[in-house]
Design goal:
elongated
């Protein structure tokens, strides 16, 4: 079961997939840029220890790692 609508929309479609090897190539889409904000949190040994106790990257969260990522982001946000 997909819990994120962003991910769900990628995997759920009613449109059949058709490949035409003799047809024209599709136009390259360049408007899919991702901007990552600068991280102002200084991660030292103590913070790394706290992260390793709070977030286990090998845990299956049932949501393709999205919940683990959000947990880490929230953890780091609380450190600011």
């Amino acid at each position: 079961m997909l819990h994120s609508t962003a991910v769900r929309s990628v995997f759920t479609t009613n449109q059949p997939s058709v490949t035409d090897n003799n047809g024209p190539l599709s136009e390259l889409q360049l408007n899919n840029n991702v901007e990552v904000p600068e991280n102002s949190v200084q991660v030292n040994d103590s913070t790394m220890e706290e992260i390793s106790q709070a977030v286990d990257p090998f845990t299956e969260d049932g949501n393709h790692g999205i919940n683990l990522f959000v947990t880490l982001v929230n953890f780091l946000g609380n450190k600011q």
